[in-house]
């Protein structure tokens, strides 16, 4: 009986991050009736580790002991998670302290601005899971987000960008708002670490003050994603005077001991031809050797100079791992993002590091399920379990005794494809819970099964606060597709990336938790509309997927007289958005035939800087292809539209961004020759330069795994 009660009590304990030790005891305390019976003692001589605590809940009340205020705060967060819906708290003794002192999350308001309220909302939630650093990425090519009084054009000009469609996006935080956020975070034991990017990712500042670049040329605040060719000129002293002025205001706002100076993804091609940069290289005697090129060493010089500026204000430098190029500054701390190598090397050399590798699942801008079903992201695939399995201490650092240089771990939330505020939350949760646990819980206490259960409880709390989070969607193994076809019969198999119940309807109604439960592949012999969602253990539904199933006769093959060799293509100049815009435009046949459907993007040179002289166009290409057996075939493409035998089957031109083909479609085709037409529109949609697209059309027989690229037949 006692064992049973203990087991039941254990099931009620759903703390994230899992504490160092939890001893469950008999009984419970009704905190709703006696909230004043929480005694809290902060005793620096208690012997409890920094940020740690002892939390004892007995039938009589709650006692908290810690050696600092952060520990007492975290004890209260744990206590809040222990409170049951009936207002009772199971009796427990919890001893707890963090594995790492840097437990960070990162916000990028540059690509898409976020309000002060929204920032506070994320801090408010994440501090409950003992996250204690907010890395605030405040400047980038696409916008400058911090008020600097000495340089008003940063707010008037650099904070705004004209999107490709002519709309204006932007905003910045006033110094007063920043003080408010920093204070709000501090009350929750979160240190805000600002990032001021240099020498790359600085186009917005250069837009406001062109003298910051090598050439002084006019530039536009970037409205596409990726890295421009233009960086700050580090040959001119005036650039460092600007940075010093900026930092002098930044340090007044942020008490953080660390200031992040970026340092990543700086293209150095302008430096190669800049008299100022080359004079600096000569003056410093920088030459190419095994450590790097002269320009890489110039970057290292610039970071050293920033370290000096920060030291003047009593602050320490953090940079992305590119600050290793050309030699690391003596006291720099490195954020390892391009894998773990930069972190391992820096720690081996005695530098502190923060692990935030995309390969380890720390980039939360990645898909958390099938890209064909999930909302758009920048790419990659990072499941909750991938994040959970990451260990921020690489074995090399254990072997060489340098593990203590790993200050901690952080997730990065780049917002290129987070167009709406809900998308940020959807990407952050529940993966931030996994981050919290890898940052706090001792390695030997981590347990995926236990965490999976506790995550459900944490997500329920998100519901109470109106925070959006990811619930695994019903997916189709081998690639989700919402437009299926059948001749006689087809079957639809569904799965989820974590075990969840799947429900569905076939009458067009929206599924509910009480809808029919999916148990095995569904067999269809007629057209149908399948609506499906997964249901969490607490009855919450995922987004609904609608899968159209279309019974059809195989489409007839072309008559022999219509069949042609190779590709026929045509082009029309101008800016178009959707395929509807192409009606009635003047097409010009291409005289030099394209070799492949993918060549639709080669009609103008790709230029990441999209100069005013860029020629926009649309093009279409047709070819004939052979189908060996009568049957159902699936088509997939990232291009704007695909027609088979004159029938429009894929229209990606209305998507918020044209990537990750999400309108795959099946058709029944008769054996023989058929015709495909691919349409491509060069535009910038959702910050994505379409000339980077793939305009191939892929085909596979239904039920097979292998895709092949459609190639024109030659007679
Ligand atoms: C980065 O993702 N460029 C640090
Ligand atoms: Zn220069």
What is the topology?
Layout: H1 2-11, E1 21-30, E2 38-42, E3 53-57, E4 62-66, H2 69-82, E5 88-96, E6 102-107, H3 116-126, E7 133-137, E8 139-140, E9 143-144, H4 153-158, E10 160-162, E11 168-170, H5 175-187, E12 191-198, H6 203-208, H7 237-253, E13 258-262, H8 269-272, H9 275-284, H10 294-312, E14 316-320, E15 333-336, H11 341-348, E16 353-355, E17 366-367, E18 379-381, H12 384-389, H13 395-399, E19 406-411, H14 421-428, H15 431-440, H16 448-465, E20 483-486, E21 490-492, E22 501-505, E23 516-517, E24 522-524, E25 528-535, E26 545-551, E27 568-573, E28 588-589, E29 617-627, E30 631-636, E31 641-644, E32 647-651, E33 665-669, E34 672-681, E35 684-685, E36 688-689, E37 698-701, E38 708-709
Low-confidence stretches: none
Treating each run of at least 4 consecutive H or I residues as one helix, how many helices? 16
Biggest beta sheet summary = 8 strands, parallel, barrel
Radius of gyration: 29 Å
CATH homologous superfamily identity of the largest domain? Glycosidases
Q: Give the N-to-C terminal Cα separation.
A: 82 Å
The hetero compounds bound to this protein are: acetamide, zinc ion
Shape: flat
Please count the beta strands (DSSP E, at least 2 residues each).
38
The order of strands across the largest sheet is 6-7-12-13-14-15-16-19
Number of domains: 4
Strand content: 25-35%
Helix content: 10-25%
- CATH domain fold name of the largest domain: TIM Barrel
* Structural class category: alpha/beta
Average pLDDT over all residues: 96
Which architecture of the largest domain does the CATH hierarchy give at level 2? Alpha-Beta Barrel
CATH class of the largest domain: Alpha Beta
